Amino acid sequence: MASLWHERQTSPTGEAGLGRERVATAPFVIDISQPLGNFRFRTDAVYNLTKPDRSEFFWSKPPRGPVLDRGVDYQDFRFLLETGSDVFSLGTEVPIRLLNPDINDNTGGISDIQLVQKMVMMNGHRWQMTQLMRTVFNSGNARKGLGTGHVQIEPGMLFRYRYSDLTYFHSEIRMTIPIAADPMYAGPALRWGLGMSTVYYETDTFALIPTLEFTNIWLLDGQFTPLQTGIPVDVRGDGIFNLSPGLRMACDTGGDLGIVELGWAADLAIGSDGWYDGLLRFDLRFVF
Questions:
Q1: 127 pLDDT exceeds 50?
Q2: Of 1-10, 127-136, 230-239, highest mean pLDDT
Q3: Domains of the chain by range and CATH?
Q4: Quick one: which of 2, 38, 147, 166 is 20 to 30 A from 255 by CA?
Q5: pLDDT tens across 33-63, in order?
Q6: How far apart are alpha carbons 272 and 51 in whole angstroms?
Q7: Neighbouring-strand partners of residue 165
Q8: CA-to-CA dists, residue 57 to 79, 178, 191, 217, angstroms
Q9: Distances (CA, A) of 43 to 32, 75, 282
Q10: CA pair distance 280, 200, nearest whole angstrom
Q11: Do 131 and 111 form a contact (C-beta atoms < 8 A)?
């Protein structure tokens, strides 16, 4: 089995190709540990997000947020520009959100803008460890449900292990901390994940890289108001688990566009505490 993972042939010629260059940055859900100059367009389609005001993680409780709702379908269109070096980068992500709630009116607009900083702390032959700091600004209209209505900071650590030239393992641990939110209703959340990416097929200019990720959001405090009773209940200890298979396709254009990546992934909820029934994700990434 070990020799299969290390030595299996992935290209028609048996030579190393584009996949071994891109496999280390392939995950969709877990933040990649390598600072990476890129422009990414991402689309998320989420179905039946229940408890949208839980811990004010998705939107605020009334009256700052929308009235109580049974569930929400929504689509995010996210534009990320990340620039820097091999050891440090800054990224800005601007999301456009379309909401289709069960009770509230359909709406759309800009959501909460993010500023992301990464700095590599250790970069060895096998291991890479990176410090992450994400700041989420309350730029979305909270009353319409387009944002949380408060700032969040998210310090974290990102890890990557090189099992072979073909296969990498990825991990993260992050803490989402609300600032100036309702102190009784909102609360911090611990986020962690484990994943892997491997080269399935590659040539000098093309690669197919499947991924598999397991992630968890553990709510450390906060409340949620059921529509039936209108009485807030405690959600401390709720665990949201997701399994996320994906496939990334990389192509070296050989021209001004450089390396272009297309990717598809799905979030499958595990257990009854999940945010939603399912999520479909599409990525278009230009690496420079």
A1: yes
A2: 127-136
A3: 2-287 (2.40.160.40)
A4: 166
A5: 999 999 999 999 999 999 999 999 999 999 9
A6: 12
A7: none
A8: 21, 9, 12, 11
A9: 18, 7, 5
A10: 22
A11: no
